[in-house]
Amino acid sequence: MSLFKTLPLxxxxxxxxxxxxxxxxxxxxxxxxxQKDPLPSWNEGAAKKAIIAFVSNATNSKSSxxxxxxxxxxxxxxxxxxxxxxxxxxxxxxxxxxxxxxxxDHPEWKNQQPYKAILxxxxxxxxxxxxxGILQIVATTHTGMTTNEFEAVVKSWASTAxxxxxxxxxxDMVFQPMLELLHYLRANQFKTYIxxxxxxxxxxxxxxxxxGIPEEQIIGTRFKTEWINDGDKPIIKVLxxxxxxDDKEGKPxxxxxxxxxxxxxxxxxxxxxxxxxxxxxxxKLNSFMLYVHHTxxxxxxxxxxESHIGxxxxxxxxxxxxxxxxxxxKKDWKVxxxxxx
Amino acid sequence: MSLFKTLPLxxxxxxxxxxxxxxxxxxxxxxxxxQKDPLPSWNEGAAKKAIIAFVSNATNSKSSxxxxxxxxxxxxxxxxxxxxxxxxxxxxxxxxxxxxxxxxDHPEWKNQQPYKAILxxxxxxxxxxxxxGILQIVATTHTGMTTNEFEAVVKSWASTAxxxxxxxxxxDMVFQPMLELLHYLRANQFKTYIxxxxxxxxxxxxxxxxxGIPEEQIIGTRFKTEWINDGDKPIIKVLxxxxxxDDKEGKPxxxxxxxxxxxxxxxxxxxxxxxxxxxxxxxKLNSFMLYVHHTxxxxxxxxxxESHIGxxxxxxxxxxxxxxxxxxxKKDWKVxxxxxx
Lengths: 341, 341
Prior knowledge:
2 copies of one chain form a homodimer. Chain A has helices spanning 3-6, 8-11, 46-58, 90-102, 115-119, 123-128, 130-142, 147-160, 176-187, 200-211, 250-259, 274-281, 314-322, 329-332; strands spanning 73-76, 191-199, 218-228, 235-244, 265-268, 288-293, 325-328. Mean pLDDT of chain A is 90; it is low at 1-34. In chain A, helix 13 (314-322) links the parallel strand 6 and strand 7. Chain A has a domain at 3-85 and 165-222 and 241-332: 3-Layer(aba) Sandwich (Rossmann fold). A 7-stranded mixed beta sheet of chain A has the order 4-3-2-1-5-6-7, sandwiched between helices. The first copy, chain A, is α/β, with parallel strands linked by helices.
């Protein structure tokens, strides 16, 4: 099993440190009822202007940059692009919460690493359990059950769990400007997809209603599965073995496998999205490449080249070199989250 | 490489025999302009009645059998369900035609099996080349090029190639009643998918406009692919190694991986579709399972339990046992093909 080597989730182990309490006092409401402006939470500026010009041309049949409806494929990374990803990918918090929830049926975990570390909130010990430990936690919390069972578990978690420092539901930590962008693209007959390194079954369980993106337009990392049919009640069981890592070159490869068309619009925030943006940039049709640059330490987090999570280094250079749109969260976004600041 | 063992294409080797000339004299036109009847090429009978009742209930919000729009997923097998598959899967004819077209650049093939057999139309010798021979032909004709290059090759073939006995374009050998069924479902907000043992890149190259099903709703057998990016012109290359065989239990597994929802409607014609129908039948929502039964030796072909291609044996028993809809081509369909009989 090469699960750990490739699973981005694993990286976050090194980031799960003592959680700081962030300032949540600066609450403001988002503008959702402005009629003329399709992107009301975006400040006027180069990024907003470029997006609107792209969509206007794509939908103008007289423009040389017109895009036929069937080719209007838009792919979005999730972690760090559509919602926050600090201090660790939210899926890791799910795994940690899940171990705690399962512990009552596993009294032996009290004395067994890496479970003991989680139950005692000892992140240092969890770190020390290394790759083997994370692998064990992911297998325990994400596999060995049917797809239906996993879906129910994630749904329940998403409806109650809160972010460790912001202390709000994870589902409140989506980016309001990106929700508007998704809506704007769909209103112009773009088909919006998520293409994420996160687990596909994890995302499908609760993100469709948040983003307005149906399950079948969510692409992600997945485990092997097994068909079991004893009699008339078939089930599909998730096995503890990675089948496809939807990160870096895995993104365009999966887009080609599953969608079968090159996107005309792609948005990401890290070097893990670079190949998806390069693939999109190579489209013969006019295409749009967007990087969300995390520059707002006050309202969200500020990080790029040096970050272990969502590192944006080579991508930052390529974006500059090719003139891709770099969204400066601090300058370009009036609000970050829909429900609070 | 376990390509041959699982690739359904390989089966057809044993069926490619001397081609009989079929009777094509009984030409009739299809009815496409009848307003009230959504399925004008279907004779009145149990199958048509059941389909219309299912769709009427699915779209009636007051019915206990109502299906929310987002759950209206309909999956169709391709070979033998949406178009003919005799005397061999059409994709095998593509491979044979392709070898002939490539031969001018390969003078050595004149003395090299299995190419020699194809160039001399010696199907007996092709048979004798066995698994290894078919593997070689599939690798030669389907892989080792970019996805774009393969698409161009297939498009060109589909626009000129003709069926060996019917002597019409393969694209004319789709089933008019099934085109009407696809259209009827979409008109009632069902999302129609192809889920086929055929090659996904082969189907995507020319079937979308024929069926009204976009590339991203075509699921099939696929090869491994490789991302190559030297500079700013990334390509995806198809490798001669099977990645996923979309047949039997591979169908529901792939549906779960790619669509992430259980279908409410599934149509097939062989035992290779049985697991997809079982998965659909296990939906908590009301669901519809349909088998096309090839009973018309005069207008199409008649075969079921004993056929090496599209064998329907266990599926026939299960359909009877569970009351799934068995479409009797001879009795239920007024016409078979849109353009000729």
